[in-house]
Design brief:
Helix content: over 70%
Largest sheet: none
Number of strands: 0
GO cellular component, one term: plasma membrane
GO molecular function: transmembrane transporter activity
CATH class of the largest domain: Mainly Alpha
Structural class: mainly alpha
Strand content: under 5%
CATH topology of the largest domain: Amino acid/polyamine transporter I
Pfam family, one: AA_permease_2
Keywords: Cell membrane, Membrane, Transmembrane, Transmembrane helix
Protein name: Putative amino acid permease YhdG
CATH superfamily of the largest domain: Amino acid/polyamine transporter I
CATH architecture of the largest domain: Up-down Bundle
């Protein structure tokens, strides 16, 4: 085993990974926002979040092409802010991805339970999780091919849903009733669920080292990916909210089949949508496993995490990182608290976005001559992304203070770990140097 990844990804496969990581957010999770706000209030949250992700991804494409590294955000922050900045960004990425995965696995369990009620949700979630851990261990080429297929099927499912549902949209479902439900606080509470439409889109950067031509392929994959996701997110929300009562949507784990049941009654179409929905959820589960395993691999290789996590097998897969990180994710599946898990994942994502944009500004000043094959409109676009990210951080913190306290506690423990582990690493290096010096004197 070594610690080199294989360069096999083409632009269309990178696009498949990027869209696949996110697409489950169309099939479930976002609808919990309607417990706190009205469809109109949620539309406000969606617009804010969509503007943020569009500006962020264009900015992020600059970073990922200038520094095509499996560590993604941890590599950018390390170069801009030093080793602790790199650790903070990497840990934020792991919080985002390791909490997103259990939420997606639980949603898979809920969809399977909808199709086969005798199968418990948590059992189905764990089995699905385990299957895709095994597939990931077969190497990025196999993993990317599987990801592309399930992503294309999932997109087809969303287009089918939008096509059959659009003629039945009633604007009164969106613009009627209590439009100002929850007020500004309700919109703030809805933001993590609007983020769920796009969360993990930046994960494609962790596949940079496995692209055949990262300098050209990454911008293509990112830009095509965000365009695809914006169209699907807006279409999915409009049709679902326009055909269903908000109170029903806020209480279901499978909003698209529920919407179709409301239009056509329980029958073949809603079951077909549940089946196709599994492809969307599987695409995200599979894609995010790719993302967090590469982040763990890169952090290990950089000396932030134990060295064994940066070993790869004969297929070029970081198998120890895949298995170790996935076992952590499976523990959170047992909690069954999907909505809370989404908030925690969103907090990690926002922290990651802020430090990434700060890194972009620092690197523009610190390394103006760095080779940047793709340049964003500077400073306007990254400035907009950074300001909105700070607003999102305030919104998520204020509206979920009891959950965020636990997240802050986790960051505190991670910081303590970083400094203790760094000291141990320094001591080990000094002992090796002293031994080598003593050994050479004897020789």
């Amino acid at each position: 085993m070594n610690n080199e990844l294989k360069k096999t990804l083409k632009p269309v496969q990178l696009w498949g990974i990027i869209v696949g990581m996110v697409i489950s957010g169309m099939y479930c999770g976002w609808n919990y926002a309607l417990e706190f706000t009205s469809p109109v209030g949620f539309m406000v949250a969606i617009v804010i979040v969509t503007v943020f992700y569009t500006t962020f991804i264009f900015s992020y494409a600059e970073l990922s092409t200038a520094i095509p590294h499996a560590g993604g955000p941890s590599a950018y922050a390390s170069r801009a802010l030093g080793k602790f900045g790199g650790f903070f960004a990497g840990f934020s990425c792991l919080v985002e991805f390791l909490f997103a995965t259990p939420a997606i696995a639980l949603a898979i369990g809920a969809y399977i339970n909808f199709l086969v009620p005798s199968v418990p949700t948590v059992v189905a979630a764990l089995v699905a999780y385990g299957i895709f851990v095994v597939i990931n261990c077969l190497g990025i080429e196999t993993a990317a091919k599987v990801e592309l297929v399930v992503t294309v099927v999932a997109i087809g499912g969303l287009l089918l849903f939008i096509g059959v549902g659009a003629p039945h949209v009633e604007l009164s479902n969106i613009f009627g009733g209590e439009i100002f439900k929850g007020g500004l606080s309700g919109i703030f509470s809805a933001i993590p669920f609007a983020i769920w439409f796009y969360l993990a889109v930046e994960g494609g950067a962790m596949s940079a080292e496995e692209c055949e031509n990262p300098k050209k392929d990454i911008p293509k994959g990112f830009i095509l990916g965000i365009v695809t996701l914006v169209i699907l997110a807006l279409g999915t929300f409009f049709v679902t909210a326009g055909t269903s009562d908000a109170s029903i949507l806020s209480a279901t784990d499978s909003p698209l089949p529920t919407a179709l049941e409301g239009i056509f009654g329980a029958g073949l179409l809603s079951r077909v949508m549940s089946f196709i929905g599994l492809f969307g959820l599987v695409a995200s589960l599979h894609g995010i496993i790719i993302g967090y395993s590469r982040q763990g691999f890169a952090m290990s290789r950089a000396g932030y995490l134990p060295k064994f996590l940066s070993k790869v097998n004969s297929k070029g897969a970081p198998v120890y990182s895949i298995i170790t990180m996935s076992l952590i994710g499976m523990i959170f599946v047992l909690s069954g608290q999907t909505a809370i898990i989404i908030v925690i994942s969103s907090f990690g994502a926002i922290a990651l976005y802020i430090i990434s944009m700060i890194s972009l500004f620092i690197l523009r000043n610190k390394e103006p001559n760095l080779n940047r094959p793709f340049k964003v409109s500077y400073p306007l676009v990254p400035a907009v992304a950074l300001v909105i990210a700070l607003v999102l951080l305030v919104a998520v913190t204020i509206s979920n203070i009891s959950t965020v306290i636990w997240v802050v506690g986790a960051y505190t423990l991670a910081t303590i770990y970083y400094f203790v582990y760094s000291k141990i690493q320094e001591s080990s290096s000094e002992e090796i140097e002293e031994f080598e010096g003593f050994d050479s004197e004897i020789g």
